[in-house]
Amino acid sequence: MTFPILPTVRAAWIAALAAPVAVVLAAIAPGSWAIAPAAGVALLVLVLLDGLLAGRLADWQITAPADTEVGEPMQLGIIAEFRGRVSLGRPDAAIEIDPRLHEDGRTEMPLDWDRATESWQGASTLTPGRRGPAPVSRMWLRWTGPLGLGARQSQRDVEHTVRVWPDLSPVRSPELQHFLRDATFGLIARRIRGEGTQFEALSEYEAGMDRRRIDWKASARHTKLYARENESERNNQIVFAFDCGQTMCEPIDGLPRIDRAVSAALTASYVALKGGDRVALFGFAQRPEIFTPFVGDTRAFHRLQSAAGELDYHTEEPNFTLALATLTARLQRRSMVVLFTDFTDPTGAEMMIESVGRLVDKHLVLFVTMEDAELDGLVSADPRTMNDLAVAVSAEQLVRQRRVVLERLRRMGVDIIEAPWDQIGYRLIDSYLDIKRSGAIG
Predict the structure, then answer these.
(1) DSSP conformation letters of 174-232
(2) Distances from the Cα of 232 to the Cα of 207, 276, 280, 364, angstroms
(3) Phi, psi of 421, rounded to the nearest 5 degrees
(4) What is the pLDDT of residue 208?
């Protein structure tokens, strides 16, 4: 491995400042013209000597995780060891990375001396913006001599890939774990008594019970009021369908909408698996991309996570007709379909409504969309110029069209969840539990 010696920024500034001095000196004393080239040669010699005194690189390596989650900070670092003397200035490192980890495709960091390991170390904190494999392809290291005039530089190819998975922080959150411990189905598999359709037992009627649960025939036989306790249905089929088209790939609060939707869906999937139901994922854009087999055990939750990580980002509009027709054909029994999507084009929204209408004839459909805070801000902002007024009018028209589409879906019997991105996960869980208790899926 060779370490070429390069002039530093300090050496370049010295040369630039010396140039006009040499011109003035040549004009005043033409006989002393030889001083200028001699000074240049002396500077070049100092650069070479300083580079030689900078020491030689013994070993260096990159420290990077094998796995991380989208939207979660991660550290990428370099550890370097030198032979001989190293200047008091800190070495600098740069790493070429995939844009999934950083939109610039590059990160830079200074290295600090670590007395414990007797090595130079540096780290950069990155926040992945998209899922998928993110290669770390190359790294550079540059260090200077004691005068700061000459520097050495080394580069090395890196064969490392960071796998960026969906964000599961809501699943690991103490709030959800506490909820699962205290929920009706809990962490231990047992029968769920609720308002389902399968008869479980009779119990004496108590104040506060729903009067519709009174079994009048049994009450007449025992001369006491008895109420029916039904078992909430289990083994329901839940399908989380993701629109991976252009609108869903637009960012909301720093991450694409599709990633926000995946995180919410996986959180609800975990709760559904705990409740004894079966879950599958379906992704589509111009054509269907992913349709996983149904998973019925939390021990297989990683399959859903892996499949969600493979959902790609597309710049074209989705084909709802083909996607939902394919989904309908592959579902052999009534299921709950949770559709994550968004819309801005009235023509595309019309096609979506027609496709959802055919789906709702056979299945229970839950439509999930995220509130657009930016659009609402444009509508509520006070216009100060004619351009602001035109933007506000256009935004108001989009909001009105959105309300019309959602109202048409409600009239078709579709349940709607419209909330900020950080609330859709919990809203989805609440809706799922309400539907499950009512026995509306089976």
Answers:
(1) HHHHHHHHHSSS-SS----EES-SEEEEEEE--TTS-GGGB-HHHHHHHTS-EEEEEEP
(2) 22, 10, 20, 17
(3) -60, -30
(4) 60
Sorted by sequence, the CB contacts under 8 Å of residue 200 that are 6+ apart come out as 191, 193, 228, 229, 230, 231
For helices 174-182 and 257-274, what crossing angle results, to 10°?
A: 30
Strands 336-340 and 364-370 turn out to be parallel
Taking domain 1-165, whether its CATH number is 2.60.40.10 is answered by: yes
- Residue 287 CB: number of other CB atoms within 10 A? 10
pLDDT in tens, 41-73: 777 778 777 777 777 788 888 999 999 999 999
Q: What pLDDT shows up at residue 223?
A: 74
Of residues 195, 223, 227, the one with CA closest to residue 211? 227
9-28 and 35-52 helices, crossing angle to 10° = 160
CB hemisphere CA count around 153 (13 angstroms): 13
Q: What is the pTM of this model?
A: 0.77
Structure tokens belonging to residue 320: 């709802």
Please provide the DSSP assignment of 364-401 as one string.
Answer: EEEEEEE--HHHHHHHHSPP-SHHHHHHHHHHHHHHHH
In this prediction, residue 59 carries a pLDDT of 85
H/E stretch holding 307 reads helix 301-309
User: How far is the C-alpha of 320 from the C-alpha of 104, rounded, in Å?
Assistant: 34
| 80-99 residues labelled b (16+ CB within 10 A) or e (exposed) | bebeeebbebbbbbbbbbbe
Q: How far apart are CA 111 and CA 97, in angstroms?
A: 18
DSSP assignment of 228-285, as one string?
A: EEEEPP-S-EEEEEEE-STGGGSEETTEEHHHHHHHHHHHHHHHHHHTT-EEEEEEES
Determine the Cα–Cα distance for residues 347 and 183; give it in Å rounded to an integer: 43
In the chain, where does the domain assigned CATH 2.60.40.10 lie?
1-165
Given 3.40.50.2300, 3.40.50.410, 3.40.120.10, 1.10.238.10, which CATH number is that of 169-188+234-438? 3.40.50.410
Rg (CA), the chain: 32
The span from the CA of 136 to the CA of 353, in Å, is 43
d(CA 434, CA 423) in angstroms, rounded, equals: 17
Contact criterion met (CB below 8 Å) for 145 and 52? yes
- 287 DSSP assignment: S
Extract the residue ranges of the chain whose pLDDT is less than 70: 1-3, 21-27, 29-36, 84-89, 182-202, 208-213, 228-234, 375-379, 442
